[in-house]
């Protein structure tokens, strides 16, 4: 595992940011190795060279940790360029998403989102919150459009027409069309919701 | 587990159809209980009261078994009514899908599809085949439309505009809009792909 030589004293000297970084990388490494089948907090902590108690203390649960990794990585990989128009911002966002799910790590992150969803009928509020975090970028694009005087599509439409196709393709490993796919999805969305400036 | 009183002789007397039925039910029960975290072939076999060697012999892998359960259940739950028109068939299909993901079992089945996807870069062909099985119903609707002289939308568009929203909502537990959702998705699809008879 590459961590067996580390001593407890070394572990305790990691800064909070170092712990976070090591734990996040361990999640990615273990997802790559096993697809999530062996993604337990003790395994993650061992791989990261930190105490599993610190992981529990900081994140509380495997689901919360996965959610944090996904949010951080996806926000790094899907930058929120301000292109000056709603259409441009949405295309840039989808384009970054398409690029991300063309990579193994990107597909693993999306599968990690699915794996990390709390199950059970009593977890509805957790799932909804989990998902709102995923839509943070989209909310910012919508706010920017409104500030410009544009009318952004409803969140539900963005969910169904932009987010859903990317997630489905990532989970099933179905390649997006080679070219023009971000434009296709965004123009379909804007045409169907009648946002101005789309024809 | 309710199976401890069964003897090996009882186990071996199950007909192939009884084995299949018991194993399928065990998958659903274990998915309900644990969300998939403990969904191993030995656990499934024990819960079903069959030998795990029979499960391996029949299905080969956990992924193949999950795929079989999902196909069977979803085909039972999503009947393929012939309504006489492409639009009608698609709406009936989406309506059944929406009804299914409003149930706990339906959401679990969709999550099972995601969980059962083979991971790893060498599993692309398996994933594609796995997914084609999911699209069997849609293929039949398209064939029926063609036989009627209608022009069905491309499979890729159906994937992005009908299948993806249902899967995403099932995985995240996001409720579909209370009414008119099947019509909304289907009319968006038909409008965007310019199929005749949609306006």
3D architecture notes:
The structure is a homodimer of 199-residue chains. With 199 residues, the first copy, chain A, is an all-alpha fold. Chain A has two domains: 16-60, Arc Repressor Mutant, subunit A; 66-193, Tetracycline Repressor, domain 2. Chain A has eleven helices and no strands. Chain A starts with 7 loop residues before the first helix and ends in a 6-residue tail after the last helix. The A-B interface holds A 34-36, 104, 108, 111, 114-115, 117, 119-121, 123-124, 127-128, 130-131, 156, 159-161, 163-165, 167-169, 171-174, 177, 185, 188, 191-192 and B 34-36, 104, 108, 111, 114-115, 117, 119-121, 123-124, 127-128, 130-131, 156, 159-161, 163-165, 167-169, 171-174, 177, 185, 188, 191-192.
Which helices and strands occur, and which strands form pairs?
The structure is a homodimer of 199-residue chains.
Chain A: H1 8-13, H2 16-34, H3 41-48, H4 52-59, H5 62-77, H6 86-101, H7 104-116, H8 124-134, H9 136-148, H10 155-172, H11 181-193
Helix pairs in contact in A: 2-3, 3-4, 5-7, 6-7, 6-9, 6-10, 6-11, 10-11
Features:
homodimer, 199 residues, mainly alpha, 2 domains, 11 helices, 0% strand, elongated, disordered N terminus
Structurally, how many domains make up the residues of chain A? 2
Radius of gyration of CA atoms of chain A, rounded to a whole number: 19 Å
What are the segments of chain A in which pLDDT stays under 50 over at least 5 consecutive residues?
A: 1-11
Tally of individual helices of chain A: 11
CATH topology of the largest domain in chain A: Tetracycline Repressor, domain 2
CATH C-level class of the largest domain in chain A is Mainly Alpha
Tell me the overall shape of chain A.
Answer: elongated
Average pLDDT number of chain A: 81
Supply the CATH architecture of the largest domain in chain A: Orthogonal Bundle
Number of strands of chain A: 0
């Amino acid at each position: 595992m590459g961590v067996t030589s580390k001593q407890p004293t070394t572990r305790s000297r990691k800064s909070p940011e170092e712990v976070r970084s090591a734990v996040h990388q361990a999640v990615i490494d273990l997802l790559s190795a096993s697809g999530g089948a062996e993604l337990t907090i003790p395994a993650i902590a061992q791989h990261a060279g930190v105490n599993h108690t610190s992981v529990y203390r900081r994140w509380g649960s495997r689901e919360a940790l996965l959610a944090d990794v996904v949010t951080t990585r996806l926000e790094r990989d899907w930058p929120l360029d301000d292109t000056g128009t709603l259409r441009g911002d949405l295309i840039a966002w989808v384009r970054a998403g398409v690029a991300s799910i063309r990579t193994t790590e990107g597909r693993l992150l999306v599968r990690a989102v699915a794996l990390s969803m709390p199950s059970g009928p009593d977890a509805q509020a957790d799932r909804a919150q989990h998902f709102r975090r995923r839509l943070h970028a989209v909310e910012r694009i919508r706010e920017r459009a409104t500030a410009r005087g544009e009318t952004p599509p409803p969140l539900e439409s963005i969910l169904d027409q932009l987010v859903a196709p990317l997630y489905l393709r990532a989970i099933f490993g179905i390649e997006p069309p080679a070219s023009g796919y971000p434009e296709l999805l965004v123009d379909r969305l804007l045409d169907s919701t009648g946002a101005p400036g789309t024809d």
